[in-house]
Amino acid sequence: MADIFSATVIVATLSSGIRLAVPLLLASLGEAFGQRSGVLNLGVDGIMLLGAFGGYFTTLKTQSPWLGLAVGLGIGLVLGLLSSVISVSLLAEQGISGIGVYLFGLGMSDLLFQKLVGTPLPAASFQKAPIPLLSEIPVVGDLFFNHSIPIYLAFLAIPVSTVIINRTRFGMNIRAVGENPEAADSQGISVTRVRYAAVTIGGVLAGAAGAVLAIGLGIFQQNLTNAQGFIAIALVYFGAWRPLGVMAGSLVYGMVSAVVLLLKTRGIIPLGASDLAAMIPAVITVLALVVAARRFRAPTALTKPFIRGG
Amino acid sequence: MHTYRKPGFARLLAVLAVLALIATACGDDAEEPTTTEAAAPQTTAAEAPEEDMPEDDMPEDDMPEEDMPMEPLRIAVVAPSASNDLAFTQSIVDAVNVIADENPGTEVAITDGTFIVEDAAAAIRGYAEEGYDLVIAHGSQYGGSLQEIAGDFPDTAFAWGTSADTLGQPNVSAYNAASDQGGFVMGVVAAALSQSGVIGVVGPIEVGDAKLYVDGFHNGALTGGASTVNINYIGSFSDVALASEAAQAHIAAGADVLTGSAQMVVGAVGVAQANGVFWFGTQANQTALAPDLVVASQVYKWEVVLRQIIADISAGSLGGKAYEIDLANGGLVVEFNDGFDLPAEVRAGADTVISGIVNGAINTMEAMAAPPEPMEPLRIAVVAPSASNDLAFTQSIVDAVNVIADENPGTEVAITDGTFIVEDAAAAIRGYAEEGYDLVIAHGSQYGGSLQEIAGDFPDTAFAWGTSADTLGQPNVSAYNAASDQGGFVMGVVAAALSQSGVIGVVGPIEVGDAKLYVDGFHNGALTGGASTVNINYIGSFSDVALASEAAQAHIAAGADVLTGSAQMVVGAVGVAQANGVFWFGTQANQTALAPDLVVASQVYKWEVVLRQIIADISAGSLGGKAYEIDLANGGLVLEPNPAFDIPPEMFAGINQVVQGIIAGTIDTGAN
To answer: Which residues sit opposite B639 in a β-bridge?
Structure first.
């Protein structure tokens, strides 16, 4: 019992939480871009699955995780554009069309896996890239500066996104079309173009989330994401549509999952309570969501298609 | 490649010594042998916690010799004809060699060609004097001599066959073959192939398994529609020339299909070949004698009974029991000649007859009024939660159904996999029932609620549901389950031997079904094997690969140097094992491909064992209401070691001993 507070165990557990958080972080960050522009994309999990398969398959065939990640990003780009066409140009009901994208990703990723790979085969993974000097700091070094490069990049994406959304014209346009597209349109902002861009960014990040997940695991399996895309959508609400908020939500979810794993592994949570314990991350996240929802409001035009003069 | 490590092996030896102690104690309890006794009193893993018998308290050097783990066995065989006679003697020699392969270090001595009984008696006595552990007198004619010799060597185990009589000696095991079973099957096929309706049988002397075979074949041929079955016992086991002439006489009498039993038939097969007449063999595969005309052979797999005999010897019982090989226990196998173009419907009919014999619907001792209807080509549908090639749960049933399809040409198989959403599965199950499939398999314990509803709507469709022991109260639902704790226990013992840290990690999905059984068995095996800590983590999901990976990481952080896990989400955990150089034990399917250097062994499910029984019952008119189980004894669970992992022969012998203990019932896995 006492040794769960040792530095080694704490570092291992928190590192585990970070690994679990990163796919959620990327996907929810991307979804935040889309939602800030007024588009709810429920197809995140499907995009993640296809990104995961593409990243895994490319890595399996080329032994290059980086090429795999690039393919995952590319797949996310294409599916992000497809989602934009459906939601923005075709004005489809966002609560339904995203489910279509999800089912497409779920089925297609499995079909491709069955036809191109078959049985799960281990593939190469990202190597750890300890940051010189910093990684040698006791405890902190191992915890924060001894990960693979995609994990650093995922966390780097948070301040970059914050700056984009809050400090750039593009970010201001996103916020504008998400709050009042008619007003933005009257100011000469192309609502269509901005929403296309935001949803496509979301697709790219969802594809990256899937690829990072699959390549990090070094394996692919049917429904590999296990609905992480939907958790990511919930985290956007929890994170109040802000990059820092979704990061916090992802980390809470990942850390709680890791701590529950630790407590189960050490027998502190008894076997009989395992199934209940498995719900803890979701329960805590939902509770946090309820609290957060009282303080923040969603973008006004969220889920509302824009029809000029409509 | 990883080699085994000495400290671990010493621990395994100590554990095996404990198991041997337990087994010996159980053997003493079973002082009065009976032929129907299934198992000695059991002990459970819970009764033998590691605290009670730490390895340090029981160093192998201090142990009395009889309590040591099974020494490499010394087995002697005395048999009447040549070791490669393609018949009676070869069948036992092949079996002993199988046993030797399974138990490295086993010493085998063979005296063949002792058709003179006095020579055989001298050889049997000689082996007993030399201290062989098991002396096999392979010939019913040796009974009188053996009765005398066995009394002189009360500490030596003898086996005598073919016979059902242990000669009243506590150190003689009897073994027999239900050769009428394969005879009946081949008789039915012979009748189907015969143009003239006349079939000839060449027998030696009307005794033992030869008589059983001839009777079964005779009844099968008549059941199959033959008009005349001529039988000629030539009065000798060795007169090849006379057997040849008997075959000639049959052909002259119009026979266009022949069979015969015992080693003298080699000449008769030659006559069949010369005359273009079909031949059915028995005792060993005789295809080589006439590659174009041997249709099938009933092959004896004596290793099935030898394993039981050896397990009983290890448990302290030297004899007094009778054993039998038959179609049900896999000791008798009908091997069709691939080079013979047997019509598919005849082959399917043969499979129906085999199923009927196995489930007791066909009595081989009488000719049936009407031949059994050739089984209609079956239509089987499978609905399963994950991918067909998940190297785990779903793959196990898909592989099994494909085996059934291969065995039964014309079988139509439909598979809907990936239905992890229960409503999707329910729709698929209902759809297959509506389409008239003969057997719809709902492969997932989570489908039970839906199936209960659907099965009631389709009373004429047979459903199978697993893994479960509950038929849902429906007369058309069969339940099937896996005693996965058995392989789990064995691998747990091995895991403890391999672990340096004494800490072992288990990644489970949800605490139900065969996953729970496996985890419990593994846990108890590892503790029995001397592990200090077995950490179990049920992650709460069958599909969360990422969480399973992190659970594996948590185990490693907790000091585990051996891991295992059950269900399809463990593929990620195996990767973690691989990345950290930690050993892995698999279950449900062979997982060696996931970590070729570090997977030590996998427990593989062979659902075809229960599917055959279910299909046989359906053919016999029973659509369900029964529960079936695969286990180590019926061959439905198989431990497949990774050939690239260097497990030393001594450890193999130890593993085999644990397996035999579980089969014999002297070791209880403690799972429930």
So the answer is: B603
pLDDT at position B189:
93
Contact in structure between B174 and B137 (CB atoms under 8 Å): no
B538 and A222 in contact by Cβ < 8 A? no
For the segment B480-494, what is each residue's pLDDT rounded down to a tens digit?
A: 999 999 999 999 999
**Chain A residues with a Cβ under 8 Å from any Cβ in chain B:** 8-9, 12-13, 16, 19-20, 23, 110, 113-114, 118-122, 125, 213, 217-219, 221-224, 226, 228, 257-258, 261-262, 264-267, 271-272, 274-275, 277-279
Q: With an 8 Å Cβ cutoff, is B516 touching chain A?
A: no
Phi first, then psi, for residue B625 (nearest 5°) are 85, 0
Please judge whether A271 and B569 are an interchain contact, meaning their C-beta atoms are less than 8 angstroms apart.
no
Asked if the Cβ–Cβ distance from B535 to A266 is below 8 Å, we say yes
Count, in order, helices (H) and strands (E) of chain B: 19, 24
* Helix (H) / strand (E) containing B165: none
Question: Is domain B379-481 classified as CATH 3.40.50.2300?
Answer: yes
Distance from CA of B431 to the nearest CA of A (A): 20
- Whether residue B17 is predicted with pLDDT greater than 80 in this model: the reply is no
Give Cβ neighbours of residue B40 (< 8 Å, ≥ 6 apart).
Answer: B23, B26, B27, B29, B30, B315, B317, B664, B665, B666
Residue B497 phi, psi (nearest 5) = -65, -35
For residues A13 and A25, what is the distance between their CA atoms, to the nearest angstrom? 18
Identify all chain B residues contacting A254, using CB atoms and an 8 Å cutoff. Answer: none
CB distance B511–A12 less than 8 Å?
no
DSSP assigned state of B294: E
**Residues B382/B386/B387/B388 CA torsion (nearest 10 deg):** -30
Nearest to B398 by CA among B412, B414, B375, B422: B414
pTM over 0.80: no
Which residue is it, tokens 């075809």?
A: B608
DSSP annotation of B44 reads B
Q: Which residues pair with B479 in a beta bridge?
A: B465, B627
Which residues lie across from B259 on neighbouring strands? B201, B280
Query: N- to C-terminal Cα distance for chain A?
Result: 64
Q: What type of residue sits at position B200?
A: G
Average pLDDT over residues A23-34: 97
CA angle, residues B448, B454, B455, in degrees to nearest 5: 85
| Residue pair B303/B98 in contact by the 8 Å Cβ criterion | yes
Per residue in B579-594, pLDDT tens?
Answer: 999 999 999 888 998 8
The mean pLDDT of chain A is: 90
Strands (DSSP E) found in B509-598: 533-538, 562-565, 583-588
Task: Please list every residue in chain A whose beta carbon sits closer than 8 Å to the beta carbon of residue B536.
Answer: 264, 267, 271
Å from A273 to nearest chain B CA? 9
From chain A, the residues in CB contact with B546 under 8 A are: 19-20, 23, 213, 217, 224, 226, 228
The candidate with the shortest Cα–Cα distance to B108, out of B138, B81, B134, B74, is B74
Q: Domains plus CATH for chain A?
A: 2-295 (1.10.3470)
Cβ distance of A271 and B538 shorter than 8 Å? yes
* Residues pairing with B229 in the sheet: B199
Contact B546/A at CB under 8 A: yes
ipTM value, please give it. 0.80
Q: How far apart are CA B281 and CA A40, in angstroms?
A: 72
Cα B612 from Cα B609, distance rounded (Å) = 6
Bridge partners, B414 (sequence order):
B381
Q: How many CB pairs under 8 A join A and B?
A: 133
Report the percent of chain B where pLDDT is more than 90.
41
Domain boundaries in chain B? 379-481
Nearest CA-CA distance, residue A298 and chain B, Å: 30
Closest CA–CA distance from residue A8 to any residue of chain B (Å)? 8
- In this complex, is the C-beta atom of B416 within 8 Å of any C-beta atom belonging to chain A? no
